[in-house]
Amino acid sequence: SQTIHQWPATLVQPVGSPLSLECTVEGTSNPNLYWYRQAAGRGLQLLFYSVGIGQISSEVPQNLSASRPQDRQFILSSKKLLLSDSGFYLCAWSRQKNTEAFFGQGTRLTVV
Amino acid sequence: ELKVEQNPLFLSMQEGKNYTIYCNYSTTSDRLYWYRQDPGKSLESLFVLLSNGAVKQEGRLMASLDTKARLSTLHITAAVHDLSATYFCAVDGSSNTGKLIFGQGTTLQVKP
Predict the structure, then answer these.
(1) How many CA atoms lie within 13 A of B67 on its CB side?
(2) Which of A50, A73, B16, B90 is at a distance of 20 to 30 A from A23, taking alpha carbons?
(3) DSSP 8-class letter at A24
(4) pLDDT at A103 over 70
(5) What one-character-per-residue DSSP string does A45-90 give?
(6) Nearest CA among A32, A15, A34, A26 for reference residue A76
């Protein structure tokens, strides 16, 4: 069966510090991968998606970047965090031709 | 631009009552998904609706899709406290990438 791992679960970072969140998927190959952000009490906003290694599409202009160095690994990064980067970050995957998305457990990021 | 709107955004109801959550979307799509989110947790897939007229049921929840009206409903029958959560609908924004566009979420509170 397929599983998705996301870490860390919680993170408190000072403004201006770097960020690296990691997500890995097991039990499938060549998945579509996604990073979503959920601000407190709000819906999900798609940040990045990837259909293959090294292929990243950004949905919104922002202070964040994403990379996919391996088939089942997706990384969300920032060089300098802003207060507005606080939120609940969710990694998700889907099969290439079946778009039901399966979510990781999420990372709650607080920028102070 | 694809937009997804849910109604209502907050719903407080007594146990044993019935209610319906509505999800409207703005452009043509034949794939719609319902997710559940418990407070502080990730998203759990509830239903996948893949064609016009699709109806799926799981326990006290039933989801339907009308692609012509661009409307999906999530019907709750004889609500119980365990159904308290936030429910999201999501529409496939692109058949090639599997990008999901989410509604704002409906927070359901079932009172004993």
Answers:
(1) 15
(2) B90
(3) E
(4) yes
(5) EEEEEEEETTEEEESS-SS-EEEEEETTEEEEEESS--GGG-EEEE
(6) A34
Contact: A94, B102; criterion CB under 8 Å: no
Dist CA B102 CA A70 (whole Å): 27
**Mean predicted confidence (pLDDT) in A28-32:** 92
Residue B100 has pLDDT above 80, yes or no: yes
- Show the CA angle centred on residue B50, arms to residues A41 and B65, nearest 5°: 65
Nearest CA in chain A to B46: A100
Please report, for residues A106, B33, B76, the alpha-carbon distance to residue B100 in angstroms, rounded to integers and kept in the order given: 17, 9, 24
Residues of B with CB under 8 A from a CB of A: 31, 33, 35, 40-45, 48, 88, 90, 92-93, 95-105
pLDDT at A15 over 80: yes
- Tell me the pairing of strands A73-78 and A65-70: antiparallel
Mean pLDDT lowest among A10-24, A75-89, B84-98: B84-98
Residue numbers of A between 25 and 84 with CB closer than 8 Å to B: 32, 34, 36, 42-44, 46, 49, 51, 57, 59
| Cα–Cα distance, A36 to A48 (Å, whole number) | 7
* CA separation for the pair B40, A31 (Å, rounded): 26
pLDDT for B95: 60
Mean pLDDT, rounded, for B52-73 = 94
